[in-house]
Write a structure and sequence with these properties.
single chain, about 90 residues, mainly alpha, 3 helices, elongated
């Protein structure tokens, strides 16, 4: 899912598709909270921009860590399978 699409869903409060990855799910809920605070008048436009920059920075770090974690897990699984296959001979 494109970030722009995700942001539009958050602005409108529409539900996420079920196949949304964890980093994008976290981003959606953070943006939903940000826009709710902005629309209720608890944030100025400038404060909203600053918060959004912080949210996007956190999202990018989490996404990178999540992708690295998935890569490591796939490698471990491949090694386990290879070791299991070797022991079966």
């Amino acid at each position: 899912m494109q970030l722009e699409q995700l942001e539009r869903l958050a602005i409108k409060g529409e539900p996420l598709p079920k196949e949304t990855e964890p980093p994008e799910t976290m981003l959606y809920y953070m943006l939903t909270g940000l826009y709710a605070r902005y629309q209720s008048g608890k944030l100025t436009t400038e404060q909203g921009k600053q918060h959004k920059q912080q949210i996007m920075g956190a999202y990018k770090r989490y996404r990178d860590e999540y992708l690295q974690f998935r890569t490591i897990c796939k490698e471990y699984q491949a090694q386990i399978r290879a070791g299991y296959a070797q022991n079966q001979r």
